[in-house]
Amino acid sequence: MGAATLVLIGLVKLAFAFVGERLREAVPQGGLLGPLAGVGLVLLAFLPLLEVFQLPLVGLVALGIVLYTLVAGLPLPSRLPGAFVAVLAGTALYFVLGPLGLLGAAYHPPALVWRFTPPLPSTAFLDGLTLVLPYVPVAIPFALVNIIGGLNNTESARVAGDSYDTRSILLTEAISTLAAGVCGGVAQTTPYIGHPAYKAMGARAAYVIATGLFVGLGGLLGYVSFIVDALPHAAVAPILIFVGLEIVVQAFHATPARHTAAVALACLPVVADLVLIEMGAVLRDVGRAPTDLAPGLQATYQAVAVLANGFIVTALLWGGALALVIDRRRRAAAGWCLALAVFTLFGVVHSVGPNGEVYWPWDIQSPLPWAIAAGYGVAALGLAAAAWRAPAAEPAASEPLSAVAARR
Question: Can you point out the beta strands (E) in 13-129?
């Protein structure tokens, strides 16, 4: 079933690959880079920070080296690479202090099992196609997350000075996802976030090729899982924190100053996803369901879940709509709010399904999607009315907001 689902996701990606460039061009930069900023700050920086503080002696030493070398740009003796030294120092502390009992229960000796797993194509996924149909509404949002992520990452690379063809990027993602499913894989592939960070570390085309070969062969021969098992998370997490920080910095620096509020707004749905992850983990650990919470907490949990479901699409549309409003493009912003209303009714954003699935509006008993859609509809009507009543001489899109405010 997992392989069959992956093949279906690959087909969805394949269809979107041919309209990806038009979508990228239609979305203001704040809408494209805002979701990346949220993912970088919340999921790529904050979650690894929790790993650091679960093993603070190991993690903080590694984090300090990363901040000193990669963020501050200060050299180590003999020009040693900061990322390598950080991981090496953290790993050494882990394996020296752990057996001595100085890391407490946080020390877990690695299993160090070598797994040889050749990706052999087969038709086994065909057996799951009839079983997977009920799960298609859950799979489609996962595909959309990675499609939008591909657009975001392509824009991030372009802002960093490297322009790639959007269709080629999305086609590569779709074909590799299909290949994974045919070979029995259950996890989709996607362009990895963090292009500006790797470029800041000195990475170029050879780094990308070497990484692809190293990871690809490592998955085949089994040494990647061996290395992942051997390295303590707290020693590696600081590199992810650096990547997250670089993404956030790029989003705010590369976006026009007047659109920084749009970038900040786009971060909020990602925060909701983080809260949902942690709340769900706590509930599962204590063996409880959201319905076991007190009424007030149930309402809070539902609000968080609705905001988190489809967060990457929500972030893109929120950031893009606000950027259009800031640029006084009221009619276009009204269209985006109308799109949010329609997407809400189908669960593409703000899904009220227990797994964040998409659905037909008439199949949902909850009035919440209709209420949210109505709110977006009112916003669309308000913007359309404002556009109709707007004076002929509008502030220039490039005019700073401070200048507009000062004149008024």
Answer: none
Q: CB 194: neighbour CB atoms within 10 A?
A: 24
DSSP classification of residue 187: S
pLDDT in tens, 47-78: 999 999 999 999 999 999 999 999 999 999 98
DSSP class of 185: -
What is the identity of the amino acid at 82? G
Positive/negative CA dihedral, 44, 50, 53, 58: negative
Please, how many CA atoms are within 13 Å of residue 152, restricted to the half-sphere of its CB?
A: 34
The arithmetic mean of pLDDT across residues 281-295, rounded, is 92
State which amino acid sits at residue 325.
V
What is the Cα–Cα distance from 280 to 278, expressed in whole angstroms? 5
Rounded distance between C-alpha atoms, residue 181 and residue 188, angstroms:
8
Contact 272, 35 (CB under 8 A): no
The model scores a pTM over 0.90: no
Q: What angle do CA 35, 45, 171 make, to 5 degrees?
A: 45
Give kind and range of the element (H or E) at residue 352.
none
Instruction: Measure the CA–CA gap between 304 and 276, rounded to whole angstroms.
Output: 6
Q: What is the mean pLDDT of residues 318-338?
A: 95
Q: What is the DSSP letter of 41?
A: I
And the tokens for 375? 């709110």
* Tokens found for residue 377: 């509809």
Q: How high is the pLDDT of residue 30? A: 87
What pLDDT was estimated at residue 175? 95
Tell me what the pLDDT averaged over the chain comes to.
90
Nearest Cα neighbor of 92 from 52, 113, 61 is 61
Checking if the pLDDT of 394 tops 90, the result is no
In 10 A of CB 204, how many CB atoms? 10
- Between CA 372 and CA 361 the distance in angstroms is 13
Amino acid at 254: A
Percentage, residues of the chain above pLDDT 90: 62
Concatenating the DSSP letter of every residue in 46-79 gives IHHHHHHHHSHHHHHHHHHHHIIIIIS-PPPGGG
Q: Do 159 and 254 touch, CB atoms closer than 8 A?
A: yes
Helix (H, G, I), strand (E, B) or coil at 356: coil
CB 34 within 8 A of CB 159: no
Amino acid identity of residue 262, one-letter, is A
Give the separation between CA 354 and CA 366, rounded to whole angstroms. 12
